[in-house]
Automatic annotation (TrEMBL):
Gene, per the UniProt record: acsA_1
Keyword Nucleotide-binding: yes
Name listed for the protein in its UniProt record: Acetate--CoA ligase
Keywords per UniProt: ATP-binding, Ligase, Nucleotide-binding
Keyword Ligase: yes
Enzyme class per UniProt: ligase
Matching PANTHER family: ACETYL-COENZYME A SYNTHETASE (PTHR24095), ACETYL-COENZYME A SYNTHETASE 1 (PTHR24095:SF14)
UniProt-listed Enzyme Commission number(s): 6.2.1.1
The organism's taxonomic lineage, starting at the top: Archaea, Methanobacteriati, Methanobacteriota, Stenosarchaea group, Methanomicrobia
Ranges for domain AMP-binding enzyme C-terminal: 528-606
Domain Acetyl-coenzyme A synthetase N-terminal: start-end pairs: 29-82
Length: 629
């Protein structure tokens, strides 16, 4: 952003039913925020004491910018909170996970059952030589075993790196190699739109280039069962059957790593965001409970995949730490028909529903008749995440799904923040288009390049001013990239988003300020797509931009120059799309490819995506003084 700009803010408010506020975990946002600001350490101390620890902390936080430590020297295991605490008490027989397969198959796993499954798989991992600090990569469809695998790693102190099952072999190999994972856990297949996704085949392509992997655990779903390679592969069911039933939770230091999760960088390779045990547990537990206002009888359905941070924090760790029932479903929102989600809400009596704007906009397009067929009266709270929830989508979600009765919690956060940072707390007035205010616990602002707050109505950079418990601690193997987050604007963590505040302090998120593209809620780096394109024989250079799309928020448009002698003949566009799909997976495939003679570049040779984008959108390209002749 070269200069400041003003945004016209529409003032529309929705007041939730006063009863929501009266019973909310945070009944008075303003008071809670003030209490937090008066003494942040006392605030977090009080929340952390609601959880169980093997040993308490010496200090709540230590801040040597840009490095923070939380719950210093405390000892814990996050699974003791997500499992043992509930299984040993009144939640023993309460469903922890309710799973629906695409074909309608259902599995209910109680807290006691999950506790035992996790311990067995944890012992299974140990028998493969996995120990504290070792990395385990998980590449699975949305089945309960995916969550069991994550928790089993946490149980023994192994660091999990979950790779979304929609990624392709190159994306998988890069992530395995960066983390030097010792074991890979996969399923033979996933099911999507009635078709099988050959995860094991995709994984085996990746495994040709991943020397660190010693063993592959395979969950076999197909009948007849696929034959395994006895040299490298181990059957999931066998491993669990042979394992001892009890596995005590490993004693972890608060600052020991819990997991690595890759997120696209604006330049270069994806970044392995590192989260640690203590602060992440406290941050996700607190936000799950307070932002979704979880009560004992609630049934929470977060439609994300555990392969994204949304799933890590609000399917697995946060809700299970609270002790709620979570619903997971394999498959897509409009299969076998556009009523699939609403049928599930009705069948399972879902009370808290958390999804992405791209899904909401898709449902809007299918029309009101689909949700009208089902009884959605159990719904109590509706959440949104991933990109701005535009006012039209807000209205539709609020009226058609929520019946004008459910508060909408639009949550702004990132892989890096680990936990929600902005939302409109249940019971507070809602403003369509605005995510809301920083939660009690987050100190945020909208500032100019030098870090000075911009006035209401003026756009600026969204920043976080103080450390928070679930913040990333580093970028795996590249601490320089971690420090970069705190360097762009003095004294602040720069989120990379543009935003604007109104007079009441509500924040409207406008989108990314850098070269990331958020497609249907998935964060895609331009660099990764460009290098996939360039790896095709016909391509000389490539530049990709995000192009606004009414359904997906943004889609990817690629500009490509071809090698000398190659012409954009028949089928090249399709071939390039196939090539990207094969290498990175369907999420990264450009919606449009345009062939050019040359790309606009700076004199120093950097591709000016900004110029391409302005041309594409019919906008002023801004300062082009650095553009080469
Ligand atoms: C980026 C982070 C956090 C889980 C999903 C994506 C965008 C996220 C919102 C929201 C507007 C949002 C931002 C952010 N974003 N939530 N409620 N309103 N924008 O995680 O892949 O790390 O992406 O998603 O641009 O920086 P992620």
């Amino acid at each position: 952003m070269e200069q400041t700009f003003t945004v016209k803010l529409e003032e529309k408010r929705y007041l939730p039913d006063p009863r929501c506020k009266a019973t909310a975990w945070t009944p008075d946002y303003t008071r809670a925020y003030q209490e937090f600001m008066r003494d942040p350490e006392a605030f977090w101390d009080r929340i952390a004491r609601e959880l169980s620890w093997f040993e308490s902390w010496d200090r709540v936080r230590e801040w040597n910018p840009p490095y923070a430590r939380w719950f210093v020297n405390a000892k814990l295991n996050i699974t003791a909170n997500c499992l043992d605490r509930h299984a040993a008490g009144s939640r023993k027989d309460k469903p922890a996970i309710v799973w629906r397969g695409e074909d309608g198959a259902e599995r209910v796993i109680t807290y006691d059952g999950l506790h035992h499954e996790v311990m067995r798989f944890a012992n299974g991992l140990k028998s493969l030589g996995v120990g504290k600090g070792d990395r385990v990569c998980i590449y699975m469809p949305l089945v309960p075993e995916q969550i069991v695998a994550m928790l089993a790693c946490a149980r023994i102190g192994a660091v999990h790196s979950v790779v979304f099952g929609g990624f392709g072999p190159d994306a998988l190999a890069m992530r395995i190699n960066d983390a030097e994972a010792k074991v890979l856990v996969i399923a033979d297949v996933g099911y999507r739109r009635g078709k099988t996704v050959p995860l094991r085949e995709l994984a085996s392509e990746a495994l040709a280039h991943t020397p660190s992997v010693e063993r592959v655990v395979v969950l076999r779903r197909e009948t007849p069962a696929v034959e395994l390679d006895p040299g490298t592969e181990v059957d999931y069911a066998d491993l669990v059957a042979r394992a001892a039933p009890d596995c005590p939770a490993e004693v972890m230091d608060s600052e020991d790593p819990l997991f690595i999760l890759y997120t696209s960088g604006s330049t270069g390779a994806p970044k392995g965001i590192v989260h640690t045990c203590g602060g992440y547990m406290v941050g996700t537990y607190y936000t799950a409970r307070h932002d979704f206002d979880i009560k004992e009888t609630d049934i929470l359905w977060c439609t994300a995949d555990p392969g994204w941070i949304t799933g890590h924090s609000y399917i697995v760790y946060g809700p299970l730490a609270v002790g709620t029932t979570v619903v997971i479903a394999e498959g897509t929102p409009d299969y076998p028909d556009p009523g699939a989600y609403w049928r599930l809400v009705q069948d399972l009596g879902v009370t808290i529903f958390y999804t992405a704007p791209t899904a909401i906009r898709m449902f809007m397009r299918y029309g009101d008749e689909w949700p009208a067929k089902y009884d959605l009266s159990t719904l109590r709270i509706l959440g949104s995440v991933g990109e701005p929830l535009n006012p039209e989508a807000f209205e539709w979600y609020y009226r058609t799904i929520g019946g004008g009765r459910c508060p909408i919690v639009d949550t702004w956060w990132q892989t890096e923040t680990g936990m929600h940072m902005i939302t409109t707390m249940v019971g507070e007035p809602m403003k369509p288009g605005f995510a809301g205010k920083p939660i009690p616990g987050a100190v945020m602002d909208v500032v100019d390049r030098r870090g000075f707050p911009v006035p209401p109505g003026t756009g600026g950079f969204l920043v976080i001013r103080e450390p928070w418990p679930a913040m990333l601690r580093t970028v795996h193997g590249n601490d320089e990239r971690y420090r970069a987050y705190w360097k762009t604007i003095p004294g602040c963590y720069t989120a990379g988003d543009l935003a604007v505040k109104d007079e009441d302090g509500y924040i409207m998120v406008l989108g990314r300020a850098d070269d990331l593209i958020v497609v249907a809620g998935h964060n895609i780096g331009t660099a990764e797509v460009e290098s996939a394109l360039v790896s095709h024989d016909a391509v000389a250079e490539a530049a990709v931009i995000g192009k606004p799309d009414p359904l997906k928020g943004h889609v990817i448009k690629a500009f490509v120059t071809l090698r000398v002698g190659v012409s954009p003949g028949d089928g090249l566009t399709d071939d390039l799309a196939r090539h990207v799909r094969k290498s990175l997976g369907p999420v990264a495939v450009p919606a449009e490819i345009e062939f050019m003679d040359r790309l606009p570049k700076t004199r120093s040779g950097k591709i000016m995506r900004r110029v391409l984008k302005a041309r594409e959108l019919g906008m002023d390209p801004g300062d082009i003084s650095t553009l080469e002749e």
